[in-house]
Amino acid sequence: MNNKVISDISEKLREKECKFTSRREHILKVLLENKGKHLCAEEIYNLVKQKAPDVGIATVYRTLELFQEFDIINSMDFGDGRKRYEFGGVEGMNHHHHHLICTKCGAITEVNEDLLEELENRVSKQYDFNITNHQLKIFGICRKCV
């Protein structure tokens, strides 16, 4: 599965005349290996450095911006002031889900169902608005911290 995703993303970048360098591939592999962990740029950088010591933090930031621009990943802020990243827009990986964020320990739990589809349809019709995405973050205390 990962090789197919890497191949698809490589092709997507090349179609837009962007190079798929070995450094970008290392960053992509770290994202794939840590799917669902909502890593920040610094965490991604530290993991990439283990496999590719020549990759700099600026390369990680630029690559994350590029991947966002091409809808390969999405970024979000869970209230801690840091952008965190997850896959989105890649065929077969783009689905609406929501996040539960513990305000004590910072744990993030994905709710893998679209709870807002009905509301999204109503809003779209009522306001003649083409909705392309949404995010729902619910803050509270997880069961470990209660």
UniProtKB/TrEMBL annotation:
One of the GO biological process terms: regulation of secondary metabolite biosynthetic process
Binding site for Fe cation: H96, E117, H134
Family from the record: Belongs to the Fur family.
A Pfam family hit: FUR
Keywords from the UniProt entry: DNA-binding, Iron, Metal-binding, Repressor, Transcription, Transcription regulation, Zinc
Cofactor binding, note field: Binds 1 zinc ion per subunit.
Name under which the protein is recorded: Transcriptional repressor
Required cofactor names: Zn(2+); Mn(2+); Fe(2+)
GO molecular function: DNA-binding transcription factor activity; transcription cis-regulatory region binding; zinc ion binding
Organism: Pelotomaculum isophthalicicum JI
Ligand binding (Zn(2+)): C102, C105, C142, C145
Superkingdom, natural source: Bacteria
InterPro entries: FUR, Fur_C, WH-like_DNA-bd_sf, WH_DNA-bd_sf
